[in-house]
Design goal:
The chain is 35% helix and 16% strand. By secondary structure, the chain is α/β, with parallel strands linked by helices. The protein is globular.
């Protein structure tokens, strides 16, 4: 019988970033609800974010915000919005150059979680991956722009943050089996 491996908890808070990608929010025409929600959920998992950054659905703005977050030392970056298929949904294209290792299984789990609420969840093209191996590597998650999409993404990703960052830093884990 195999023991269940419990994801490790963060031993100390880590720096994070939340980037809301929305033309309407960036122009002040709509309230950003998904960014503050992501910030609150990340705090529950030991990730500190000062405030969400809001940028328009533009590849250059999104890339600039991602680079600024990495340069500031963020270890966890969550984007909200821009993961669909409209002409202005550019978040995956903007994020792709920052991902050194894709975590496609996690992206798929986020989509599957969203299916409980809506078949539209399968249209999300959000990426999940890490920027680099090592102590400076960051987990990058493209969450849908809805509050439900953020909830789904962080329900999947949140409990794994400590383990993912530990793995990036070279810590290994062992799952023991009663058969051994």
């Amino acid at each position: 019988m195999t023991e269940t491996h419990v994801p490790e908890k963060l031993k100390a808070p880590v720096l994070g970033a939340v980037i809301t990608v929305s033309d309407r929010c960036s122009r002040g025409e709509a309230e950003d609800r998904s960014g503050p929600l992501a910030l609150a959920r990340l705090a529950e998992f030991g990730v500190e974010v000062a405030h969400p950054v809001v940028v328009p659905d533009d590849i250059d703005y999104i890339r600039s915000a991602l680079q600024e977050a990495l340069d500031a030392g963020a270890r966890v970056i969550v984007t909200t919005g821009g993961t669909g298929i409209t002409p202005r949904d550019n978040t995956p294209e903007a994020t792709e150059p920052f991902i050194a290792l894709s975590l496609d299984g996690l992206a798929q789990q986020i989509r599957l979680a969203g299916l409980a609420a809506t078949p539209l969840a399968t249209l999300s093209r959000g990426l999940v991956g890490v920027s680099a191996r090592g102590d400076r590597g960051a987990l990058i998650v493209n969450a849908p722009g809805s509050t439900g999409g953020v909830e789904d993404a962080l329900a999947i990703i949140g409990p794994l943050i400590g383990h993912i960052l530990g793995q990036l830093s070279g810590r290994t884990h062992e799952v023991e089996s009663a058969d051994e």
